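User: Sequence in, structure out. Go.
Assistant: Echoing your sequence, followed by the structure tokens.
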Amino acid sequence: MTEDSSGAIRSVERAAALIQAIADAGKAGSRLTDLAVTTGLSKTTVHRLLGTLVKLDWVELDETTSTYVLGLPLVGIGMAASDRHGFTSLAAPHLNRIAELTGDTVYLTVKAGAQAVCVDRVVGTYPIRTITTHIGERRMLGSCAGSLALLAWSEADEVDRLLTSMPGTQASGSALPDPAILPELIQRSRVTGYTQAPTTLVPGAEGIGVPVLDASGMAVAAFSVEAITARLSEPRRSHVVGWMKREAAVFTQRLQQLDRTSNEGTVRRLMQPGTT
């Protein structure tokens, strides 16, 4: 083994130790000083590694408390691991019921900064299937029905900030949302209680999304169905929306039973393997 390769292995081992220490700290997170003590690394080394992990979005810094917490993109990387008692297994019965009722592809997404992460998917039985996103894949908020639900049911100042930071134009055939129409779509969604948006990656397809809300009425996750446009026209659309809203409401109640102040922190905790 060369000196360079052994140094790279040590860096990976140290980064893994940091991630494990942050995970062990739970939703409260951990400060740089505490991480140095826990891992036995110098503060300089910890600071350098944390800087890289933050750039990758694997770790997030809560600037109000100066603590580090795990980033949601790690969810996508860890989807190959068993999640017997976590967030996705709690949501699985609801996804399966929606897929059974609609026959279409159903997605579960959660928010990761300005993006939405697909953490689970159930493919329906209808012969024409609309599959645009794989488990672990990320899309910008507002680019599809599920991510639009996460955006529409966010705090007003967060919505304004995200809309301001989005690119000014949408490339043809891209998966980016069109900032010119997002405010109207958000307003319409809040009135109807669901999102409806064309699927930019598959011509002739549409999606419907409903939020899974926390105790304050903000979205912590979203259910979405994608299908060919003809399957989401009225009167069928109303039936699909009703089924999705019902499952989202029951799932919301389940989360609040586990944590009366359920929020994004609850989702993060439940994303950790072995958490009940």
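User: And one key feature?
Assistant: Residues 80-85, 169-174 have pLDDT under 50 and may be disordered.
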